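Item description
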Amino acid sequence: MLNQYSFRERATIIATFCLYVNFFVLDNTQAGAPIALGLALFVIGINNLKFNFAPYHLFFLIFTLYCYATTFWALNGYYTLTIANGLAQSLMVMSVFYAAFSPMENNVNTLIKTILAAGYVVIFYSYFFYGFDRILSMSEDSMRINNSFINVNVLGMMSALIMLFHIYLHLFEKHRKDIFMIIFAIIIIGATQSRKAIFMAIMGPLLLFWFKSRTGPRHNLLPIVRFIIIAFFILVLLDLLSNTGMFHGAYERFMGFVNSLTGEGEVDSSTSLRAYYRQVGWDQFMQTPLLGVGINNSPLILSRVGSAHRTYLHCNYAELAACGGIMGLLSYYSIHTYVLTKELKYVKKDPSAVLFLVWMILILATDWGSVSYYTKRTFFNFIVFFLHIQQMKQRHPEIK
């Protein structure tokens, strides 16, 4: 993959690979932030970068500045500054990588493949860290792997995203002989028992197959029939996996989430607790709808209602609504709205837009069960989104 690039470009790609691995392996340690900064300085040192102010910077700058602004009315300004300073640092670091990849030929495809390769390194590191025996011999009564070097939900969602990228490249570019490697990602998803990861692993490929089936002539029913057959086999496979020891726990946790949505069946304690956190957030939003109580002040909201846990609200929407109000929701999700509307315009013209449309749908869906607005991964992922929109504008100037 690297042979077509210059020495500086190859070094930049390798630095990006290391950055992505760092997000998951070292981000929770004291070394994570210095390593990210060091990689950014390395990229600056080897490149003659031009820092052009793009929509990417505008959207994230507005959101970061709003987070700083909430310190003036926050319940605890220190909590807010901690997150705002982290956002500012992430914006500066990611702006370096945005500037480095922006002029690079075929930059979006390169970033996707870099994420894919780095993701598999994290997956195999997980096998090494937890032990192959621990992961592969999980019994029906065993607990999910614990939060050690990274939150297991984050690990599971990353594995599901890598699985999605691999299937996309297999379907839309060329048949890849290494497609079997998604098995390693699927096993990690089962070991994490992450409901969000399971959702992504099911809906991501189904949406890819669906959009793939819609790319042919409308009068040709064969792609639709093929999609139905593939979807059927995926559902049968999931049913079979749910009966195995490894995936039994994951299946039970996922069904608990489904039961909470339908109002029928048994709901596990984790799902109930998360629903309670969300409700606390929405109740706070109704009291302070415009500006909230200050970014990252959700632990204080929970302490007000007598909760024994001082944590975030486990829902990006409720978290931003309670802590940032309507302005917080708008300043953050305007980014997603911009990307989504652009990708919808290009999806009928360019197959590559399919991946980004599906990816955005999954982000919006899984934000219901996770808090992601402050992570470096979020800033990095949007580099790929905005560079893809830039690429689409160049390829399809007729679309406004």
